[in-house]
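Workshop exercise sheet. Pairs work together: one partner reads the sequence aloud, the other fills in the structure field after running the prediction. Swap roles for the next sheet.
Pair: D.N. / O.F.
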Amino acid sequence: MTNKLLPLIIARRYLFAHKSQNAINIISAISALGVLVATAAIVIVLSVFNGLNGLVSTLFGTFDPDLKVEASHGKAFEADSLLCGSISSCPGVACYSEVVEDNALVRYGKRQVPVTVMGVGPTYNSVTTIDSITVEGRFSPATCLLGDALAAQLAVSSLSFNPYVVLYAPKRVGKINMAHPETSFVEKVERVGGIFAVQQAEYDATRVVAPIDSVRILFDYSPADVTSISIRVDSAYTPRDVARQLQSRLPADLVVKDKWQQHESFFKMMEVEKLMAFAILLFIALIAAFNIIGSMSMLIFEKKESISVLRSIGADESLVTKVFLYEGWLLSVGGAVIGLLLGVALTLAQQKWGVVGFGGDDAYIIDAYPVELWPSDVVAVFFAVVALAALAAWYPVKVIVRKHYRSM
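Structure field:
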């Protein structure tokens, strides 16, 4: 055991021993500092991406259901009693709501905007938490809700004197009458019962939530047709397990999507951005780690006489190489560990106290940068940085020690 620890003991002594040239101490400190800063930066940046991901997921979650059943091909499908019975009897399904969704045109006065109309059943407020994001009025099966940005664009309010909007959709069957094109559209008048705010333009500027029976008439669907079925999962179950069980009960032409799959392209883009940020910062860490090459070269040159002494008392080339290799690893791993602890500490401080804020009063939906520390990220950063730093120390030590040892 002593023989195995001997190179490490000598390496630690060399690392903290006084050097004849003060520049060696400075270069060594800069090398460790570079690894430290790069490691802390990677942890912090990855935590910011995690925080943004969680924030957006929360915003989407107030409007989107836990699970959604859609047709794998085509737009609409028939929600007959057999299908609804299979869904309601599935373990973990707390409640569900039929949904009909399509594009239309909304008009208020002389203003008109293309929108996505969602026809929902009376239980939709139980399936989602839409009540919590309704900033004016309330959800009602007899009235429609508008996104706040859309309501502002139309200049309409549920409290206005005439809170009625007109929805237009082209007829699904028949030809356009060029002499009277207005006859080619289905028209529905709806009362504005409230305004919601998801804080996402995808919803707030383009969505109208209306009674499902009216929307079926607007888009010329039969009373049993739906474009999706929204489902709330019981808190005692996980959405993924319920989705798996539900999928086995449904026909092959229907697919069950969880919240991640409902916005798959967006979350995949977030993952790619996080991966690219990790790769770029890891490259910066690699550049910082290569400072160790210069540091180790000077340290080996400083200890030329010590190498002669070690050789004269029987130390072979392998032992001498291990001494300086361990010294380089102590330098790099020490910087990585301290950087990791610093990054974790700063992230936790931001997570708890919101040290770095956005600034401005009520300009943002949150006051400080959102962060979320994932243990898997910490482990990945540690091993990645240590591997790069160890590799940066290995090559110069191997080459330079061999040269000095064999030239003696």
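Discussion prompt: The mean pLDDT is 86. What would you look at next?
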